[in-house]
Design goal:
There is one protein chain. About 30% of the residues lie in helices and about 25% in strands. The protein has about 325 residues and is of the alpha/beta class. It folds into two domains: about 5-45 and about 215-300, no CATH class; about 55-205, no CATH class. The strands form three sheets. A seven-stranded mixed β-sheet has the order 2-14-13-1-12-10-11, with helices on both faces. Strands 4, 5, 6, 7 and 8 form a five-stranded antiparallel β-sheet that branches. A two-stranded antiparallel ribbon has the order 3-9. The longest helix is centred in the middle third of the chain and has 18 residues, at about 165-180.
């Protein structure tokens, strides 16, 4: 029988928003537990452990990841402000075309090639560096975590003791920014009302895992990394629909972008609960990024003595 998991942001993201009454009552009667570790590790079991996004998406984009190590060097828009600079857009948000990539990459190839990291772009929104065997790397921040934050705190190796690797990659980033800032293609993009590509964003380093396993049969997500790992696990994947749709198997629906509880309830949770009550769905799991999991089943309606959940900030 079909099951569904709704992947959600940390409960703190919802602040003091009141839960819809019916949803609060169902969550109060649900089984619950707290799981430690990364939310993604509850979706995919990787060996060796990690989250090598660059290798996974490279395999999906070009089918040539092999045993090489890869690093994403995605196109990015960084805007200076009074306190420094901030990452405002990257990847798909920049609406790059093949013509953009054909203009920008030749200017970057000598810089990264001379450093020993060939660069290419099988798709305009995702640029890749192929890393030599044994390359030492600093820590990198994912663009999702860096978006809108002070750039100084998100540079390669930030938060670590000053290391040769951190200095090297910060220097590479600085040189790439100078190259892109002066590129004539950006004047054309600005004239067309598009954000310039004035930086790259390094992240997602690693090699393909030896195996990727999951209990799911389908992942619905707008996150290309989730869909790339679904491909490695040999299960179906699709973009997230606009609202709940009936389906079979064990599905995961990636709602981590959700902010408004009323909208999430209207478009996703309430329809899913109706299917739970009719028997079309055997189990519904709400998996929050902070580790809290609510397991809902139709038989729980008899737990009428349990108090409803009012808000998530308690």
């Amino acid at each position: 029988m079909a099951t569904a998991t709704l992947l959600l942001p940390a409960r703190g993201r919802f602040g003091a928003q009141r839960l819809p009454e019916a949803l609060g009552r169902r969550l109060g009667r649900a089984d619950r537990r707290v799981d430690e570790g990364a939310q993604r590790a509850r979706v995919f079991d990787l060996l060796p452990r990690g989250w090598p996004v660059a290798a996974a998406t490279r395999q999906r984009d070009a089918a040539d990841a092999g045993q090489d190590a890869w690093l994403r060097a995605d196109p990015a828009y960084v805007r200076p402000d009074i306190n420094g600079a901030r990452l405002l857009a990257h990847g798909d948000a920049l609406s790059l075309t093949d013509a953009d990539t054909a203009a920008f990459l030749p200017a970057l190839k000598p810089l990264f090639g001379d450093a020993g990291f060939p660069v290419d772009a099988p798709t305009p929104s995702r640029w890749y560096l192929r890393l030599p065997a044994g390359a030492k790397l600093p820590s990198f921040t994912s663009p999702a975590d860096a978006l809108g934050a002070d750039l100084l705190d998100q540079l390669p190796g930030s938060g670590e003791q000053d290391s040769p690797e951190g200095r090297r990659w910060r220097a590479l980033l600085s040189e790439a920014q100078v190259t892109l800032h002066n590129h004539p293609r950006n004047a054309q993009r600005t004239a067309a009302g598009l954000a310039p590509v004035n930086s790259v964003w390094f992240w997602g380093a690693g090699v393909l895992p030896d195996h990727v396993r999951t209990s799911l049969s389908e992942v619905c997500s707008d996150d290309e990394a989730m869909r790339a790992f679904a491909a490695l696990a040999d299960i179906a994947s699709a973009p997230l629909p606009e609202a709940w749709q009936a389906g079979g198997g064990d599905r995961l629906l990636d709602l981590r972008h959700g902010r408004d509880l009323a909208v999430l309830d209207r478009d996703w949770m309430a329809p899913a609960l109706r299917e739970l009550d009719t028997g079309a769905l055997a189990r519904l799991t709400l998996d929050f990024a902070d580790g809290m999991r609510f397991e809902l089943a139709s038989r729980q309606r008899w737990r009428f003595w349990r108090r409803p959940v009012g808000t998530f900030d308690a």
